[in-house]
Design a protein that fits this description.
Blueprint: H1 3-15, E1 32-34, E2 51-57, H2 63-71, H3 73-78, E3 82-88, H4 91-100, E4 105-108, H5 110-119, E5 125-134, E6 136-140, E7 155-158, H6 164-175, E8 190-193, H7 199-205, E9 210-214, H8 217-223, E10 227-231, E11 242-249, H9 250-255, H10 257-276, H11 278-293, H12 299-307, E12 309-311, H13 317-329, H14 345-353
Parallel strand pairs: 2-3, 2-4, 7-8, 7-9
Antiparallel strand pairs: 1-3, 4-11, 5-11, 5-12, 6-9, 6-10
Helix pairs in contact: 2-10, 2-11, 6-13, 8-12, 10-11, 10-14
Length: about 375
């Protein structure tokens, strides 16, 4: 295919992408149901429930859910209550599913959690735990961008308008003294809102000069010749910031606390297992990704991507508040009231039982 035609095609695809306000770092908005869990013989139901439906993305940053599903850890804790699953490609569709009762608990990024909470005036969800930190990088074409100052004037992709990485890049650009219109993406740097599936092709075609993206997209770009210019973790205290939370509908939390506790127990034990067996966990997560997407990640993408993600039970609540402030400064969000977005009561109960330390809600919890 001629280069000009490739560029034209990549730009056409990007132009056709919807601009989803405060969406997650996923790949679109369609959900896929999969109810293949196996219930252990002789087990008892929890809270009298036939099933608990768990939502997550087919993303390495949702590795806790990937591993817990593949290893059967969710089902082990739920007993005769069947673990059912729905995989999502973007935050808005997962929030819609939670609101509709199609899922009960979900793994999701910080921006859609904030958006879902504020849009419902604090009535639809709670963040009940953490899952992952990090895994976001600025990857650039080394022939066009050799230093951070060279980013000025270039075309940088982010996953979606107003999503977690879009907010982070706009905030970083403002810190460099550059002005960018958040709505159009035009300014001293041009922000190209590009689906993570499309970004590697856009990069190869030369229609973007780099991208501020989560894993595994960042490592896909590196495999295409890109260079990591900045790891977002270096911009945060202790190099930790929330990339994935666990949310639950408030109705389900109130009516079925034992089921929620069982899922949290599975999550805590999964993170412990992941951190004790990182290589095996990486393989297990990739196996579930292959089931969910039909294609496993190659080693040159999987290995560096997995290494850059920290799996943690701590929701890193203070960083969620900071991310919300960044969105407000960028003009993407009106100042939100996040008081009550967290309820870490059950998580701290589970952590105490597992010999862990209590985690903090940064004064954004209920009561």
């Amino acid at each position: 295919m001629p280069a000009t035609q490739a560029v034209r095609r990549a730009l056409a695809v990007i132009a056709a992408l919807p601009l989803l306000t405060l969406a997650a770092c996923g790949y679109g908005s369609e959900a896929k149901d999969d109810d293949t869990a196996k219930v252990a013989a002789g087990a008892e139901k929890i809270d009298g429930l036939d099933s608990v439906r768990i939502g997550y993305f087919g993303n390495l940053t949702h590795g806790t859910a990937l591993v817990a599903r593949q290893k059967g850890f969710f089902q082990e804790e739920l007993g005769a209550t069947e673990a059912k699953y729905a995989t999502f490609n973007a935050g808005p569709s997962e929030i819609e599913a939670l609101n509709a009762g199609s899922i009960d608990i979900g793994w999701i990024g910080p921006s859609p959690a904030i958006n879902g909470y504020t849009k419902s005036l604090g009535k639809n969800l709670r963040i009940i735990g953490g899952s992952a930190s990090g895994g976001v990088k600025l990857v650039v074409n080394p022939e066009k961008i050799k230093s951070l100052k060279d980013v000025e004037g270039k075309r940088i992709a982010t996953p979606q308008h107003g999503n977690t990485q879009d907010v982070a890049f706009l905030n970083w650009a403002a810190g460099q003294g550059w002005k960018v219109d958040a709505a159009s993406g035009k300014g001293d740097v041009t922000v190209v809102r590009s689906d993570n599936k499309v970004t590697p092709d856009a990069y190869k075609a030369g229609s973007v000069d780099g991208a501020w993206v989560p894993e595994p997209t960042a490592s896909r770009l590196v495999a295409e010749g890109g260079k990591v210019l900045l790891d977002e973790a270096t911009l945060w205290p202790d190099e930790k910031f929330v990339i994935t939370n666990i949310i639950v509908s408030q109705k389900f939390l109130k009516e079925h606390p034992k089921a929620v506790e069982a899922v949290l127990t599975a999550s805590v034990r999964t993170n412990k297992w992941i951190n004790a067996h990182p290589d095996e966990a990486k393989t297990v997560a990739n196996a579930q990704l292959e089931i969910d997407s039909g294609k496993a990640l190659p080693a040159e993408v999987l290995d560096p991507a997995w290494k850059s993600i920290r799996f943690t039970d701590d929701p890193l609540a203070a960083t969620l508040g900071t991310q919300a402030e960044h969105a407000v400064k960028a003009g993407l969000l009106e100042k939100p009231d996040l008081k009550g977005i967290y309820d870490l009561t059950l998580l701290n109960k589970v952590l105490a039982a597992e010999g862990g330390s209590k985690v903090d809600d940064a004064d954004l919890g209920v009561g």
